[in-house]
Amino acid sequence: MTEFTHVRHKPPSDSPGARELIVACPQMRSNVNLSRIIRVAGCCGARRVIVCGKQKIDRKIARDALDQIEIETRRSLPPVLKRLREEDYQLVGLEQATNSQCLYEFPFRKRTALVIGHERLGIAEDVLKLLDHVVEIPVYGQPLSFNAATAASMAMYEYCRQLGETQG
What we know:
Mean pLDDT: 92
CATH topology: Alpha/beta knot
Number of domains: 1
Number of strands: 7
Oligomer: single chain
Strand order of the largest sheet: 3-2-1-6-4-7-5
Shape: globular
Strand content: 15-25%
Number of helices: 6
CATH class: Alpha Beta
């Protein structure tokens, strides 16, 4: 029988540095959700997280991610997304929408800006119009959608899974 020993706070997997993943969030309703998204972005090696409005990030939740990634605060997402497109980022929204693709069938590009929707309102129409792609996560029960931070975590992990440690 295989024996397992708990290894607390294992060092990060070998990686060639920060991933070219940027996470963009609207003004979130919950500081807990935003803090959880930042923590996962840090775990996934994201370069930066763009947040809108005056947000309070809970260091107890976000932990060391606050020391590892850049947090960029903006008034709104459309101007930032337009600039990211000019920098050759693929703009991918995480939302239940017409013509969306299943997250697990969508091929992420190395330079991806993952746009997260508001907890209650989703991705605003003016932002949806700017996106190159929209992905959604299948739901197999009730409620009919995942929590914004949970969904963001799943999408960031899928990005990492697809691109592996070699960065695509």
